[in-house]
Amino acid sequence: MNPSSNSRTRCRGLSIGLGFLHTRVALNNYTMIYLLFTVLFAEMMIILLLLFKTPLREPLVVGLDGFKQGKAQLAVTSVCATVFVVMMYNIYTVVEIRSCSADAVDSPNRVILAFRILEASLMGVSLFLLVMIECLHQFIKPVVILTETITASRKQNQACEDTNRKNAHLAKSIKEEISRLKTGITKLELECDKREKDVQSRKANSSTLKSQLVGLHVEYDHLLTENKDLKDQLHDMNERLSHSTSKKMSFFSWDQWGL
């Protein structure tokens, strides 16, 4: 048998088989294409959120980190492997249909061929975008961690600067208080010196008064001695006077003269 006739027979069989499955495959293809487009738009949105610095980037990175842990990573790997197998099957189907002659491929099969090509393209693009998301996540994760570290460091530096400002204000207040206390101490020292001088002058006056008091005591003792001497002399004089008076009285008495 001629090889070209075998090829035509196989293409006709493939065309007949595809014709029988045209109705069911068309419905499934529409659903799959809508799903693939939804996945593509979601992946594009994730890539845009990862590329640009938005408030949603950090929560998205944290969510991807959590999504990669546990059974979710195994499920994503299984889905990706399934999509890859389906994509390779669609590519094989497209190659088989392309290998047939143009006469053997009718209009319905051309529609199915277009759907297969579109499905394979969307699956390939979705897998490529998924790989891009993985790479972007691996590159952006350290950036996000570094950004968080820098933000925390800035906040800590701001807190330190605020503390330094407060400490500087407190130090200034303490310096002012110290200068005020020094002024008060200087005034107290001057007052203390003045009072010390007053005390020294009073001590000098007290020494002078003590010396005067000693002199007065000496003079008082001398006066007492003189007073005692005068009293003794007066007493002696009184005794003498009384003795002479008694003699005179006895001389002039009547008894003595016999009268």
TrEMBL record:
- InterPro entries, alphabetically? BAP29/BAP31 (IPR008417)
Does the entry feature the keyword Transport, yes or no? yes
Primary residence:
endoplasmic reticulum
Task: Provide the transmembrane region boundaries.
Answer: 32-52, 72-92, 113-133
Question: Which SUPFAM superfamilies would you find in this protein's record?
Answer: Myosin rod fragments
Which parts form a coiled-coil structure per UniProt?
Answer: 220-247
Entry membrane topology: Multi-pass membrane protein
UniProt keyword annotations, A-Z: Apoptosis, Coiled coil, Endoplasmic reticulum, ER-Golgi transport, Membrane, Protein transport, Transmembrane, Transmembrane helix, Transport
**Cellular-component GO terms for this entry:** endoplasmic reticulum membrane
Annotated localization: Endoplasmic reticulum membrane
Q: What PANTHER family has UniProt attached to this entry?
A: BCR-ASSOCIATED PROTEIN, BAP (PTHR12701), ENDOPLASMIC RETICULUM TRANSMEMBRANE PROTEIN (PTHR12701:SF56)
Protein family according to the UniProt entry = Belongs to the BCAP29/BCAP31 family.
What does this gene product do? May play a role in anterograde transport of membrane proteins from the endoplasmic reticulum to the Golgi.
What is the protein's given name? Endoplasmic reticulum transmembrane protein
Record organism: Lactuca virosa
Q: Highest lineage ranks of the organism?
A: Eukaryota, Viridiplantae, Streptophyta, Embryophyta, Tracheophyta
